[in-house]
Amino acid sequence: MTSDNTNSPKDNEEKEQSSLSIDEEKKKAKKWIQGSAQTLIKWMPLGSSGTWFANALLKQEWLTAFASFPVMIVTVIWASYTESFLQRLAEVFEERGRQDVDNLMSWQQRVREAFTETIRWQLAGTDDKYLKCQANDCLQYKTEGLNTFKPKLKDVFVPLELSSQFFTDEKGQLRPPILQGFFWQRNLVQQFQSRQGLSIWHFLRLAKGDQLYRSLVIISKGGFGKTTLLRHITYIYTIKNRYKQKPYQAPKLLPVLLYLRKWQSLIANQKDLTLVTLIEKHHLQDLPGGNNLKLPPNWAKNHLDNGKMLIMLDGFDEVKEEWHKKLSQWISQQLKQYPNAYFILTSRPAGYHQYQGENKPKIPLFVKPLNEEQQARFIEKWYLSWETHNSVEPLPYEAQRQASHLIAQIKPIENEINPLSDFAKIPLLLNMIVNLDVNCTAKKLPQRRTDLFRSIVQLQLGNRPLARQVEMPLESVEDRQQVLQKLALFMMQQEQTKIEPDLLLNQLKQYLEPIDNSLSPKTFLKKIEDVSELLIRIDDHYEFAHKNFQEYLASVEIKKEKQEQLLLAKYQETWWKDTILLYVAQLTNPTPFITSLLNLNNYEANQLAYQCFQQTTRQVDPELEDQLQSLSTTVQNARYQKLEELLKNQQFKDADDETYRLMIETVGKEEGQYFDPSDFDTFPCDDLRTLDQLWVKYSNGKFGFSIQKKIYMDELGGTKDYNEKIWNEFCDRVGWKKGGNYVNYSVANRRRMSGHLPRGHLPLFNSLSSVTFYNIFILHLFSRAKTCNL
């Protein structure tokens, strides 16, 4: 029996015929519509003229018929023309329609493929895989200062504090924020007034909403932990969602840590090298496991364009001087090309002065020295990590006991000089101190920086191998050190912090032959690398554990070989500055060398002479005190020569800038940094008196610190304690305020040469930020002026 839903063959046949009939009717209808349309178009011009001609014939109006006949002829011609025209037009648009449909289908196919590709790469987790590769490069703590063991970064890292108060003006010079010229964040002001440092995460948070903070430069002397800070940032970003936690709360970014010393040759010599190429073709391939990572199309470019990538360029100061310009321009180009991306550049101050790119990082930051709390925290973490690493059953109280013993040694001593307190403010030196303390039996740690370096070298080349019962090449520590000294000097002369293995072995062979020509350079290198860690291998090259060790060993070799003239010839080169200072610190009598610098009789030489003199003040034999006192007077006279010249010529604006430079140098800080009140509490009276006397003399008693102190304390009755009423009255009197508002610093600049500035208006040096915050410092400065009897 057939189901009701089943059709018979007859029914199917009828349906097929019916379907064919419908299709035929559709075709006929379509053909009729097309034909009607063509007929209408063909005969449309005939219109009323055709009717006019027919009507004239019927009425036998021959003249009218004759007049309308040409119009009808034109219409017949048009009809014949349009028939062919419309047929061809239909053919053309039929073909065009096929092409458009093909294109539409092709576009849909491409969309489907792109969507599929996106999903595939998303599922592939490219970013996460990259983060793992980058993380493998930042796991261990490397204050690049010779650890007997290598603790994990997360176990010992202590956040560095940064100071940020200065911006770059139209000339690229560091200047303070002007009250009416910049919007100064309220929370920055609060931290500034409370003397608290700012963390790098603070600026990354600000950068999320303000592109001004997306290009930073971190400036500090060697050993202050710039590289470690970048490694810490990288490490935090490689841990999933860690950057969201307190105290970070930073935007989600993909970190790229690029060591400029490693890539400088590539950047300087490969024409049109892009940041994208550097990241994808070189940096990634250099990371552990990075050569196996497959990237989606435009991976780095998309992240850069969308502001999802943090580019960290470490060590501009370690770039060869001949390549400073090329790398400056390259960095400048990347800052311009990727305005949404985040950039952090690091450099020593002297090296950053060589930056020559059109676009500079907008916000300069300075690393603050470690305070006592940070020092204690680092030491406690370090000893706890050490105890955990070396004991089967770690004893936290034993780690705390050892840490407390060292903390007591580095604490400042009231009314006494404790060099270890100064060393402990610098992360590299503090790390060295801890290493020495845990490895040495000596009760007292070294009291000079050069002695600290010497002890570390002795530890790594002698004591440590002995404790581990490792037989080292060459019989004496001195011979091993001598080989490394010669190598360090060679690398300094080449202006390189890294050396290729073949060249290294060739140099070692030359240095070893006079001592032991039977010793293989490879054997020597392996022992030095494995046991001492003074020389370490990184990828396909070798370098000293830190540039400071290269500089120290080179300075020792220069002293040994009496090559002082080499340093005098290099006095203007920033690459050699720290080597020169380390050399002077080793001299029993530095007077001849400093005098040789002064005899060069130029501004740069005078600056360096003063810095060299500072290296000697705490380490001089009492028999040399008279000689050095005489030298001190000579150095100071040369140092203040430029300021005196500016004041003599009534160039008060430039004299104001020079006053700041001299004072910030006196307290051991870098140009662009600001003062802490404590800097004025201990400011040398001789220097303050010299500055004041020059201002008073060449302004005819109108300007100077003593004049300002007299107005504030003697005439207005002010004290070291802040009094708002007296402060405002003082500001009105010296012209820092007008109508209750602070005067814009740039306006004051324009008026300086006019001679109409009020008594006591200057100095108002740039170091004190906007005059909004001047009261934080000026009271300490006035108090010091009173103590120094100005």
Folded structure, characterized:
- GO terms for molecular function: tetrapyrrole binding.
- InterPro entries: GUN4-like (IPR008629), GUN4-like_sf (IPR037215), NACHT_NTPase (IPR007111), P-loop_NTPase (IPR027417).
- Keywords: Membrane, Transmembrane, Transmembrane helix.
- This protein is mostly helical and 790 residues long.
- Among the domains are: 25-120, no CATH class; 132-161 and 199-368, Rossmann fold; 668-787, Arc Repressor Mutant, subunit A (Orthogonal Bundle).
- The strands form four sheets. The chain has a six-stranded mixed beta sheet with strand order 1-8-4-7-6-5. It has a two-stranded antiparallel ribbon with strand order 2-3. It has a two-stranded antiparallel sheet with strand order 9-10.
- It is globular, with a radius of gyration of 40 Å.
- 35% of the residues are buried.
Please sum up the structure shown.
This protein is mainly alpha-helical. It has 35 helices and twelve strands.
* Helical fraction: 55-70%
CATH superfamily of the domain at 132-161 and 199-368: P-loop containing nucleotide triphosphate hydrolases
The helix count comes to 35
For the termini, the CA-CA separation is: 126 Å
Strand order of the largest sheet: 1-8-4-7-6-5
The biggest beta sheet reads: 6 strands, mixed
